[in-house]
Design goal:
The structure is a homodimer.
Chain A (H helix, E strand, L loop, with lengths): L8 E6 L2 H7 L6 H4 L2 H14 L3 E8 L7 H20 L3 E5 L23 E8 L1 H6 L16 E5 L17 E4 L9 H12 L8
Parallel strand pairs in A: 1-2, 1-5, 2-4, 3-4, 5-6
Helix pairs in contact in A: 3-4
Chain lengths: ~200, ~200
Amino acid sequence: MARSILPTHVGFIPDGNRRWAADHGLPKEAGYEKGIAPGLQLYEQCKKAGINEASIYCFTQDNTKRPSAQKDAFREACVAFAFEIMRRGASVLVVGDETSSQFPQSLTEFRHRQGVGMKVNLLINYGWEWDLAGLKNGGLRSSDVSRLDLIVRWGGGRRLSGFLPVQSVYADFYVRDEYWPDFKPQHFDEALAWFKTQDRTLGG
Amino acid sequence: MARSILPTHVGFIPDGNRRWAADHGLPKEAGYEKGIAPGLQLYEQCKKAGINEASIYCFTQDNTKRPSAQKDAFREACVAFAFEIMRRGASVLVVGDETSSQFPQSLTEFRHRQGVGMKVNLLINYGWEWDLAGLKNGGLRSSDVSRLDLIVRWGGGRRLSGFLPVQSVYADFYVRDEYWPDFKPQHFDEALAWFKTQDRTLGG
């Protein structure tokens, strides 16, 4: 099967905020706010490159077991990011368990996609078990999220950590060792260049 | 969460048999038979290292769309490998759609685990959609396969290609560029050494 040179749908795992903060002598929770500006920069880069859809691993149900200072910080960062990209014209879908108190109420209406620009799916209070549990009732809870072509992770971890397991089945996985707040556009440029070099057989 | 130094359950994706054959001036189908001896070597290495469970990506439902010379060759290699590790005392479970004519009849009884040695799960005529479809009826079709700690892939591909998506959610992913028939024990030694260096937070 011929592959398109550009991935249609890219997943992003922006990991390493807490390690970045610790390395800079800051409390761990100070790292999340430092992830917003890089996220906006990457959003603009995706738009410019012609990426059709992006999915961002914001926080999971498991993450909400962290100390409340951290939890408050990543929730606030996610809400700020979500509203800013909406303001910039993104078509936003929030994927996560909105029935829990851990879900930011201000994002409830975005459990259905809003807007007409580049699709951005924000995984907020997401859990892979929560997602798959939908299959008992006919479909994934993330059924509005398409198959991923490429996943880019920062922070050096070489695992999916529960990120959209069904949409990830054929995705190429590109890892950067830099912590997310140290994002540079060059990272994503290199991911796209690498993606072009990968064969894609889909098992055939 | 503290991690054990040794992975309990390791997944193997032995890719690159056809490219190996082409590089050696052989027809593509000649590569599969060259994968058996490395598999036995790796099985003995796992036993010696004290690995509790191994899952091997043998062939998928999608793979059976390949030319019949290839299909015959990989089926035969899988059956030969399965019977040889049973003879050596492995506790074998075959995971795959046994209702299809693509499933080797001689392996039907191993759709339930047989034996008491090291657990080896062979994915034969497996499909991730087939697996997940079990959730509609109460559980994965691979429900006897435990969570993976480490996945090792040969042949350079940085993707899971549908390999046990649920058991893979937190697995560390280690890739070798060598084609599978060029397996050397050093590859797995290096994978285990690398695994020890990985943090494991499981989202907490």
